[in-house]
Amino acid sequence: xxxxxxxxxxxxxxxxxxDVFYRARAxxxxxxxxxxxxxxxxDIRTDPSILDAMHAAALAGHTGYSMFNGNISxxxxxxxxxxxxxxxxxTPGNILITPGGQSALFASHNLTCDDGDRALFIDPYYAxxxxxxxxxGAKPVAVPAHxxxxxxxxxxxxxxVADGAKSLLINSPNNPTGVVYTPETMNGIARAxxxxxxxxxxxxxxxxxxxxxxxxTPRALPDMLERTLVIGSLSKSHAMTxxxxxxxxxxxxxxxxxxxxxTHTTYGVAGFIQxxxxxxxxxxAEFEEMIAAPFRRRRDLVLALLEGQNVVRSIxxxxxxxVMLDIRATGLSGEEFANALLDTHHVAVMPGESFGTSAAGHxxxxxxxxxxxxxxxxxxxTDLATTLAK
Length: 390
Ligand code: PLP
Known about the structure:
Layout: H1 5-8, H2 19-29, E1 35-37, H3 48-59, H4 72-86, E2 95-98, H5 100-112, E3 118-123, H6 129-135, E4 139-144, H7 155-162, E5 167-171, H8 183-195, E6 199-203, E7 228-233, H9 234-237, E8 246-249, H10 252-264, H11 271-282, H12 284-306, E9 313-314, E10 322-326, H13 334-345, E11 347-351, E12 362-366, H14 371-389
Parallel strand pairs: 1-11, 3-4, 3-5, 5-6, 6-7
Antiparallel strand pairs: 2-8, 7-8, 9-10, 10-12, 11-12
């Protein structure tokens, strides 16, 4: 039988950039002791209090079909949280609950792009972005964010490819770079969207992980409210990756249309997960800070460990659970260095090349192991880099 071009073309063909990760997993399965600094998942599990709330909700009967667009109790809480964090009036009519941020990204591109339309995204990028765009039949177009500009996207680079495009996907705090977009960057992005009539899809799933400077949501910038869709999720903020719970914030009419898509795809999110999400949000900012705290501490640890040498250089690590490191002084590509580190020291990191072309010569370190293991891995990493650079 023949499969659709859309599904067979989803990954774009070739390597998916995760070879080092797969190799590390295979070595681990073969019994080797590997320190994995690869994927963006907490080293703690979902808090037992949230699981208790989930269990109680299931026992109380929240196991039937739930509202396809999200229960009003959860949409109210998300709207309140968004309004408090951004200062923008937001009602439940502006919110659609989705099974995670990834599903929200797919739905947003479905809303904004027709077959063959060009959809822009920033490179370096989160692994699923081009496939998500292809998945709705649109054509992914990368806009480079350059290392020598601190990976801050420049308005002129967006404008250079914006003619005829339908949307621009951005992500701040950023995976993989750990960069938080400056007010100047955000204003430039907004300008480009207004000048070229683009939808802006703003992936803000790391909005509770800010170590330096402030996160600006472009939805709050002048004239952006009606053309911005914000992607949110409890995966990173509440260590609820497996619960698959997120949302889209947007204009009411957009949310109405995406609601129709939900009816024909996900049919909503399990009621007991939504109840657990209500409980999680009710724990407030203190709980979110507790979940983010290990990453803040480990980011400081990594930066301190890099002092006193100048072979491995860090990109301003302002947010998210990653630190991007420039290893170009070793003469190796990110991929070569990551493979060498895995072979010689059994430490797995992601090559920058896994996230597009702009982060070549870099590696991404996920801050997702406990501090002593991270410290030992960082010593091995800098030792290898120093040896290679000689
Ligand atoms: N967006 C970015 C930038 C991510 O890094 C991730 C997950 O790593 C997601 C979206 C997907 O998150 P979720 O678990 O909410 O689907």
